Every structure is written in structure tokens, then in C-alpha cells.
Amino acid sequence: MAVAYTLLVLFLAVFVAGFILLVMGAINFDFSNSEIPPGVNQPVKLRIIHIILISTAVVGKILENIGICSGVSFVRYMQGRKTLGVDMKLFIKDLWFEKVPVRIYQPKVPSATQRRGVMFFHGGGWVFGSLETHEKLCRFIARESESVVVSVGYRLAPEHKYPAAYEDCLHATIHFMNNIEHYGVDPANVIVCGDSAGGNLAAAVSQTLAGRSDLPKLRAQILIYPGLQALDFNLPSYQQNRAVPLLFRECAAFYLLQYLNGDASNLEEVLEGSHIPIDIKLNYRKWVSPDNIPEKFKVRGYKPHVLLDCTTKVDETVKRFCEPSLCPLLAEDAIVQQLPESFILTCEYDVLRDDGLLYKKRLEDNGVRVTWYHLEDGFHGVINSFNSDWLSFSSGKRGLDNIV
């Protein structure tokens, strides 16, 4: 018995040591392949957050390899396990809009007039994120702007491929607008808002509703470092910030492919730009081009990328890349001209920076009023860190105050 016990302890010790070494090795690899530019304030905090995210992903992958659970499921579990208590200033309720789960935040303070309504779509690359991951953010927006906020728990990839997330956000928004009298919201003062992938969804929903005559017009769209196109992953911001946490260039393409196809088998073609035929690229070059990026954003190590053609096989796989409900930057002028007033937030050290800059130009060229706020020291995901105790960033709070 004693020998068996000793062997068991020895086995567990070796297993734990090996597990730790695997995690540390993966962290070190990711750590050495990442870069935090000198313009980012509090770089040590960003490094710590990055290490936490890497560790979670690595542990998830190990658990998947030994058959306990999928890596994606583990990361989702870890992201959503924090629960907040009662909010003294808000009524909070979980509901279903049709078949879509939502969480509604309503200020408790009585209002003499109808409130504004905010449909909020969370970020997370269409793969991660939930009502829980953006709970603090939605509470803050509801409290500080005295708005009714509806957070949408749309279906996630790769289990639910495009257009599932878009359809959930669209249907939830339409349901809210059709039943708006129940929530004390002014039908002429409804806003769509989202960060990252959620910004993509907000832009797509806004475009779809722009031509609807049976619903009130949206008052505005708020796009927080949105991803808006998949034609060119070699724009200046993708090159300059390719290894800056919290969103690497490769990860941005990976998540989009997960949303589109449920796999990332064409990742290399997408990154090098050989996933779209040249004639299609040239057709959209009036909207997706480094030429439309202000020169001041190109000085930090940008090199023009040579256009590549693609194989028929790859083209067939990703042919939906040009649909505006996936890539809102590619919508026709007739749609863009009908869009509501817009707020776009971009971060200097973010691969998605240029998506926001290109959309800003498109909107302005089509007569849409745009308020643009650029965080010179910001990085992708910084808004969600506004209230993360000792891992908070002043730039995140600054950005959120401007959103409110």
C-alpha cells in the first residue's frame, strides 16, 4: 500500500511539473513573439493581462488534448465565471427576445421623459464574450448615461457560423423596437453599440435597418475599435501592431475564419492576401486601401503590400467575405448614405485601427456625421479594462467616458 501511495504521489508530482513546464513553455513562446510599443502607458499591466490570457488558452488546449473539455469551452468558462451582485442604481433582468437571450439594465431613478435605448453587442471575436464578460461595461453605460441598455447574448462560433451572430443581433434589435413601449424608451432615440466583433455586428445591423420603413430610424451607432473588412490584413495598422496584445494580426484573421467557416484552414492565404481575386480587390480598392489612411498613421514601419491573386478553391471557400453583413465597410454608397450619426473609437496600437479609419472616411464622404475619438496610447480591448481594479488603464476610462 505504501509503495502504491508513493508511486501515485510521484506520478502526480511529475504530471503537475510537466503541466507547469508545458504552460510556461507556451507562455514564453507567446511572450517572446509579442511586442508592447513604448507609446503604451503602463506596459507591465498589459503584459500581465496578456500572460493571464495566454495561460488560460494553454491550459484549455491541454485539457482538450487529454479529452476533458474543449479549449474554447474552458476559456469561455474562465471568462464568464465572475458574477456581480445587486446594483443599487439599476434594475437588471434576463429575458429572451424571440430565441435570443438578453440582459436589460434600467435606471431606477424615475425619468420625466422617455429614455434612450442602447442595444449592446459584446466583443470577443465572435468566438468568445458573453453577457457576463461585458456586465461591468453595460452597467456603467446604463448608470452614467441614464439609458436603458440591452446586452445581447448572441450565438458564438465555431458552433454557430455566420450569419448566426448577425441574425441574433438583428432580430433582438427589431424585437426591442417593436416592443419599445414596455421599457420607457423613446423610439426615436435607439442606438446600436458594440466593441470589436460587436462593433462589426452593430455596423451590420445599422446598415440592414437603414432602409426599413416599418421601424423608427436608429438615432446613432457607436463602434468601438470595430473589425469591418476581411479583404486586406496588410493595412498599416495590421503590419505595425501585428504582435501587440491583446489582439495579434493572426488572431484577428483566425477569429474571422472561425465565424465564417467554423475552421481556419485558409489562414495563411487570408494573411498573405491570396484569398480574394485581384479583380474583386481592385473593385473595392476605392474603399479598402492604404491610400485612404492619413499619412501620419503610416510612418511607424509600414511597407506597401503586393497584391496577390488567389486559387479558385480558396475563393470558393471564402466567397462570402464580400458580404456587407460580414464586412460592413463594403456596403454600397446608397446604404451608407442612410446611416445614422456615428461615433467611432480607435486605438493607435490596435490591428483594427485602420478598419475604423476607413469607415470614418466612407461615412464622411457620404454625408454622415461622425464623431471620432482616437486613443493615442490605447490597445485593442482597453475599454473593457476600465474597472479592473489594479489592472485598470486610464486610457480605457478616458475612452469610455467619451462613449458615455
Shape: globular
Average predicted local confidence, pLDDT: 91
CA radius of gyration = 22 Å
Strand content: 15-25%
Across the major sheet, the strand order is: 1-2-4-3-5-6-7-8
CATH topology of the largest domain: Rossmann fold
> Helix/strand/pairing class, anyone?
alpha/beta
Helix tally equals 14
Topology order in helix (H) and strand (E) letters: HHHEEEHEHEHEHHHHHHEHEH
How many structural domains? 2
CATH homologous superfamily placement of the largest domain: Alpha/Beta hydrolase fold, catalytic domain
Q: Given this structure, which CATH class of the largest domain is correct?
A: Alpha Beta
Let me know the largest β-sheet.
8 strands, mixed
Kindly state the percentage of residues in helix: 40-55%
What is the count of β-strands?
Answer: 8
Poorly predicted residue ranges: 6-29
Euclidean distance between termini CA atoms: 66 Å
InterPro entries: AB_hydrolase_3 (IPR013094), AB_hydrolase_fold (IPR029058), Arylacetamide_deacetylase (IPR017157), GDXG_lipolytic_enzyme (IPR050300), Lipase_GDXG_HIS_AS (IPR002168)
Protein name: ADCL4 protein
Domain Alpha/beta hydrolase fold-3: 118-263, 323-383
GO molecular function, one term: carboxylic ester hydrolase activity
Quick overview of this protein structure:
Keywords: Hydrolase, Membrane, Transmembrane, Transmembrane helix. The chain has 14 helices and 8 strands. It is of the alpha/beta class and 404 residues long.
